[in-house]
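Researcher: Batch entry, complex prediction.
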Amino acid sequence: MVEKVDYNNLPKATIKRLPQYYRLFKQLLDENTTRTNSRKISETIGIDAATVRRDFSLFGELGRRGYGYDTKILREFFAHLLGNDVDTYIALIGVGNLGHALLHYPFQRRNRLQIVQAYDVASNPLVGTTSDSGIPVYDIADIKSHLEEDHIETAILSVDTPHAQEVADVLVAAGIKGILNFTPVFLQVPEHIHVQSIDLTKELQTLIFFTINDIRIESDND
Amino acid sequence: MVEKVDYNNLPKATIKRLPQYYRLFKQLLDENTTRTNSRKISETIGIDAATVRRDFSLFGELGRRGYGYDTKILREFFAHLLGNDVDTYIALIGVGNLGHALLHYPFQRRNRLQIVQAYDVASNPLVGTTSDSGIPVYDIADIKSHLEEDHIETAILSVDTPHAQEVADVLVAAGIKGILNFTPVFLQVPEHIHVQSIDLTKELQTLIFFTINDIRIESDND
DNA sequence: TAGATTGTTAATCGATTAACAATC
DNA sequence: TAGATTGTTAATCGATTAACAATC
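Model: C-alpha cells for the complex:
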C-alpha cells in the first residue's frame, strides 16, 4: 500500500492510462459502487485486465486478492497521484475559435483543473475584457507578471500555426513548465519543458486511413 | 516505387505517423524545397531518422541513395496513401461549444477533409438553420437520409458525455464507419466500426503528471 | 571516383498478455 | 474451507534504433 515508485521509472504507457483509471474510480464512487475488479475495469475502459493489474501493482498492493479493488481507496489514490487533491491553475494562449471552446470545456467539472487566465495579442478586441466564461483576457506582452500572480506553470497553446513556435518561446521565457499544444508544430523547447500535443488533423486523417483501408484494430486509446 | 504493402500488416505506430509525413512534404513543397533527407525530417518533426527511413521503406523504395527524398514525389505519394487526392465528407454530431469550434477548424485548409453536415437534437435552436460556417444543422432524427445524400461515412462526435454511447449507436445504425470521438467514453461499437478518440482531460492530466513529477521524456507525439 | 544517404538487418528496448502461485 | 481475484513472472509481441552494405 505504500508507494515504492520512482515515477521516473514508470512506463510512459502506464502514465498515459492513469487519467482513465482516475476517471473510472470517480464514476464508480458516484454510482455508489464500492468495489470492482480488473475484469470489470477492462470491460469498461477497454484496457486488458492483466495490464490493469500490472499498472496498479507498480504503485504497491492496491487491491485485495479474492476481493478486487476498493473504489474509495483507489479514487483517493489516483487523485493524489495525479495532483488532483489540489487546484491546478492553467493559462490559455490564443482565444480564437478553438481557444474559446477550450475556455468553456469542463476540465473543472470533475477535476481540479482550472483555466484562470487567457491571453491573446493586443489587437484582439477581447484583450482587456473578461470572457463570457468569466476569465480575464490579457495582452500576451504582460504574461510574465500575470502568471506569477496565480502561480501558473501550465499553458494550453491554441494560437495559429505560424505563431506557435514564437509564442512557445514567450511561454518558456515567462516560466511555463508544461504546454498542451493544439498546433501541429513540433515545438522546439528546452529539455526541462514538457510538451503534450493534440493534433486534430492528424487524428482525423489517421481515422480515415483506418476506415478506408478497413484495418482491424481494437479501439484506439492514447 | 511500386506499392508492395498489405495495409493490414502496416505497424499501427507507422500509420499514426503518416499524417505527419504528409503535412511535412506539403510544407516543403510550398517553400519550394525540392529535396530533403531523413536527418532533416527527423529534426523538423521529431521522429528518429531511422524510424523515418524504415517507415518509408514499408511502401517500397521512395528515396534515392546518396540523394534523399524528392518532395514532390513524396507529397503525391502520401496524398494518395491518405486518400487526400479525393474529397472526404464528414458529419459533425453535437454543435455545442466544442462542436462549434470544430466546425470552424481548418481541416480543409491543406487537406480535402470537409465537414459538410452538422447534427444536434431538435430542441437545439440551431437545428434547421445554417451555421455561421455555412454548414446546415440537421435534426439527429433525420440523420440516415442526409448522410446518404452526401455519401458520408465519417463522423466527429462532440456531444455531452451522458449521450455519447446512445448517439454512437445511432451513427452506427445510420451507416457511419469511422468515429472521431471527443467524449471520454469508451464506445461499444461493432468490430467493423473504427473509433479514434481524443480525450482532452486525459491529455491535460497526463501533461500535468509529467510536469509536476518532472519526468524526462522526448516530446510526445501520438 | 568520392561522398552522401538510402534501405535493411540485427540488436535493443518497451509494452502487452497469458498463466498461475499467493492469498484474501 | 472453497472460490475469487490479485500480484507477479515469464513469454510474446511490437516498436525503435544503431549500424552498415548497397548504391545513387
